[in-house]
Write a sequence for this structure.
């Protein structure tokens, strides 16, 4: 019925768990603790996303039933591909939080992603020429 | 890292990452801002518990949270490539960030202030151990003594194979020159690595 319902359930269930408390008492934070929005998880489901990995929303992703931050991410990268770091800044969360949310959205087929890869000599030459022409 | 490119969405160009490392106040953000198409953005990374343990808080007396900010900029090269420049503090107590920022990087610029050259030692070791191609860019501050390249080389303890250039981090053309030097260096390392082995098939990016 509702796309992404199963993961939403999992997300809500995870959210009921206590958020990580270690070492945060002395921080004096009065705002929402960052990992509340990830349901207390501090590591993404599958591996890590690099800071420069580009993500872009798939067609129709913005129409899915998504929660606040998740919806913000999908809307943010609907028009153009953005790096994980740009998404973190764009939705105002620390990098670690953005990584988890983005990894979930990728797993749910709502985002495409492109990681940097080993480049051929030809590709490096091309990049050099493009930089030179800036 | 390893083959995890099950699909190549046409929607996403390929990110190309360059690390800009150097001590506090050396001009990393200035350098990034001189050439970035966006105002440099700042993101926060949380320290892991392990690094909190080794972090020397006496150096940062006002430190009340276990996060560190780092800046980055973006240059859209064409429809196939987007270049990102990530600034990362060069001091060893931030080494937990280095892997995060350096993984998959094309190369690195080590920005040096000749008044605080010792800030660079750990990160030089790091790049050398990882085999990350890097160039040393000496930021020529107003009023800073201008040292000869060989003096800088000796002070840094880098081999003659490491390119050292002088730059003005505020100047776009100067920063562009540093980037070109770096990419030339990446090419040299790439060619020497691949001249002896059988050429591994690599993904071609069309576009």
């Amino acid at each position: 019925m509702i796309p992404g319902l199963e993961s939403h359930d999992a997300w809500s269930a995870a959210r009921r768990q206590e958020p990580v408390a270690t070492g945060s008492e002395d921080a004096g934070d009065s705002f929402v603790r960052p990992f509340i929005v990830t349901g207390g998880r501090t590591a993404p489901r599958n591996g890590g996303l690099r800071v420069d990995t580009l993500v872009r929303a798939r067609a129709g992703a913005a129409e899915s039933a998504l929660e606040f931050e998740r919806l913000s991410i999908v809307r943010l990268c609907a028009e153009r591909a953005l790096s994980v770091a740009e998404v973190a800044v764009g939705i105002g969360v620390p990098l670690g939080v953005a990584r988890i949310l983005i990894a979930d959205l990728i797993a749910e087929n709502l985002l495409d992603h492109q990681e940097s890869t080993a480049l051929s000599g030809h590709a490096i030459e091309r990049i050099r020429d493009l930089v030179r022409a800036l | 890292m390893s083959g995890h490119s099950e699909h190549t969405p046409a929607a996403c160009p390929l990110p190309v990452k360059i690390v800009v490392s150097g001590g506090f106040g050396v001009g990393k953000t200035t350098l990034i801002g001189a050439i970035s198409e966006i105002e440099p953005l700042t993101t926060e990374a949380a320290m892991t518990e392990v690094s909190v343990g080794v972090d020397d808080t006496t150096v940062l007396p006002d430190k009340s949270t276990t996060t560190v900010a780092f800046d980055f900029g973006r240059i859209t090269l064409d429809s196939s490539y987007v270049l990102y420049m990530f600034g990362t503090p060069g001091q060893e107590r931030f080494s937990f960030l280095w892997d995060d920022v350096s993984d998959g990087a094309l190369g690195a610029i080590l920005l040096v202030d000749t008044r605080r050259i010792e800030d660079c030692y750990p990160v030089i070791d790091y790049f050398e151990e990882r085999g990350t191609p890097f160039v040393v860019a000496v930021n020529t501050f107003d009023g800073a003594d201008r040292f000869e390249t060989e003096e800088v080389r000796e002070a840094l303890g880098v081999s003659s194979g490491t390119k050292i250039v002088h730059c003005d981090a505020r100047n776009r053309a100067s920063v562009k020159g540093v980037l070109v030097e770096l990419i030339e260096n990446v090419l040299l390392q790439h060619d020497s690595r691949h001249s002896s082995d059988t050429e591994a098939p690599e993904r071609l990016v069309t576009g």
